[in-house]
Write a structure and sequence with these properties.
CATH topology: Alpha-D-Glucose-1,6-Bisphosphate, Chain A, domain 4
Largest sheet: 7 strands, antiparallel
Structural class: alpha+beta
Helix content: 25-40%
CATH architecture: 2-Layer Sandwich
Strand content: over 45%
Number of strands: 7
Order of helices and strands: EHHEEEEEEHH
Oligomer: single chain
Shape: globular
Number of domains: 1
Number of helices: 4
Distance between the termini: 44 Å
Length: 148
């Protein structure tokens, strides 16, 4: 087992139409406005940017995100990631009554040297750190969508 390899799946139920959620999620440069752990997103060009995140633990992760798939009709947004995290992440949005089910899938290898050295003892803490970040993201997006 590669202790620096992670697969995550998170589902958020949001009380907004799918198109509204999609519009918010496709504007990655706005994430820092509603997702506290996404510290900054700096566009490189129309399909890529540099992202810096930090959750509860005292370290930043920085990676370049490059758009792989943007499908408004299918409700899918997918990126490739390189840097402290190498892999991919995907949002898949489906209608759920009058709201939206947003599923976030991510598969990454952690490349940051410190986190690789701590991979075995730190794995449960790193997974909990990710869960806290995702929980805060759901709360932030829900509040952002209410204000729109």
């Amino acid at each position: 087992m590669d202790w620096s390899h992670y697969r995550f799946r998170t589902q958020w139920t949001l009380a907004a139409p799918r198109a509204t959620v999609y519009d918010a999620l496709e504007r990655a440069e706005d994430y820092p406005r509603w997702w506290p752990q996404v510290r900054e997103v700096n566009r490189i060009d129309d399909t890529s940017g540099v992202v810096r995140i930090r959750s509860v633990l005292p370290y930043d992760l920085t990676f370049t995100a490059r758009e792989v798939r943007r499908d408004p009709a299918g409700g899918v947004l997918e990126i490739a990631m390189t840097g402290d995290l190498d892999g991919w992440a995907r949002w898949t949005l489906t209608e759920a009554g009058s709201g939206t089910l947003a599923r976030y899938d991510q598969e990454v290898d952690v490349a940051k040297p410190l986190l690789r050295r701590l991979a075995v003892p730190g794995r449960p803490v790193f997974r909990a750190n990710h869960a806290l970040m995702m929980r805060a993201g759901r709360r932030g997006l829900a509040a952002h969508l209410e204000a729109v």
